[in-house]
Amino acid sequence: MICAGAIRDFQLTRVPPEFLDDPYPWYAALREHDPVHALEGGGVFLSRYEDALAVYRDPHASSDKKEEFRPKLGDSPLYEHHTTSLVFNDPPLHTRVRRIILGALNQRAIARMEGDVARMVDRLLAAMAAKREVNFIDDFAAQIPLEVIGNLLDIPRGERGPLRGWSVAILSGLEPKLTPAMLDAGNRAVTEFIGLLQMIVADRRKRPGDYETDVLTRLIQGEKDGEKLSETELYHQCIFLLNAGHETTTNLLGNGMWLLLRNPGEMSRLRGDPSLIASAIEEMLRYDGPIQLNNRRLNAPATLSGKTLPAGTPVTIGIGAANHDPAQFADPERFDVGRKPNRHVAFGQGDHACAGMSVARMEGRIALARLLARFPKIEMNGVPERDRRIRFRGFRKLPVRVA
Questions:
Q1: Residue 283, CB half-sphere, CA atoms under 13 Å: how many?
Q2: N- or C-end of the chain: fewer Cβ atoms within 10 A?
Q3: Helices 143-152 and 231-262 meet at what angle, rounded to 10?
Q4: 212, 353 in Cβ contact below 8 A?
Q5: Helix (H, G, I), strand (E, B) or coil at 106
Q6: pLDDT in tens, 190-231
């Protein structure tokens, strides 16, 4: 139990070591004692569900990060990427790009992807069966989104090796506290990824795919009878697709496996009733979500938990905190694969809700259902190693033994 005094000096730029392993006691203390907590630089951290929802739905809460990121990232490739990609933009760019992407990721398109995903998962499970002892992250969780996004963007298989490292390096640039090494790695990753995309895009311009189903062709050609993306915008939306898809699914699968191992009764329940897989995925997203923080800047005053914030206030939405709010979720610290209702905010809300959430859910559902069906026994095989980032929550290593 974290007391009120302990959170007085809480800052995301200097969290205590134990926060990285288990931030939820800190979130609970913030919700109770200081739900609109002051951060250095004039911002606030929100930990209550209703406040998170209010900001997500507020038309005056901006996602544009040019002002916020300039001091941290300077005039760099990393700055260009994070201020050009879909997630950190307002209309009109956000609206145009989102419509293009969602047009290619409709339910029919996702249904067509399911067979390929199932076959890929089965290949990975066969390799796991041969090894018996695996790092669940490297050997399974991270492989699935890289394959799916690689296929969506038609990245040649021989060129996919650096993709995961690039994704981690670029997204690490969003951490509350950056080191020179993190900045160097992120800038190098953006530059190298754009170099690869230049060749892929040039080839696709010569040989376009089906506009109705091919994401890269849609991004290149833009909306029918509408405005096209600039070359710079195009490259950064492609990078965004890889990064968003990689982090969400890898961490969903890794955290989900960890939760099932920690809660064997719920694993047995899911094995006994595979129809619970969809609600189990939602509970994994709520209980230990892949993305813990989101950001907005208020363009007009807003009142949250009784505190009025002026226009210009940077707001950090505590996604993980909101998803454990007892005012919204009964017995929130209990992992329940059949929980309903489960109106979590793991994918955000409103106009900026995650464009790829249906793909992530599909990947998670197929991967974990087939994993449990293939292996009657799954157990820990060593000490897990948590990723030490704050915004993104997952594992570097999750050693398991399957039989």
A1: 25
A2: N
A3: 150
A4: no
A5: coil
A6: 999 999 999 999 999 999 998 877 888 988 988 776 778 899
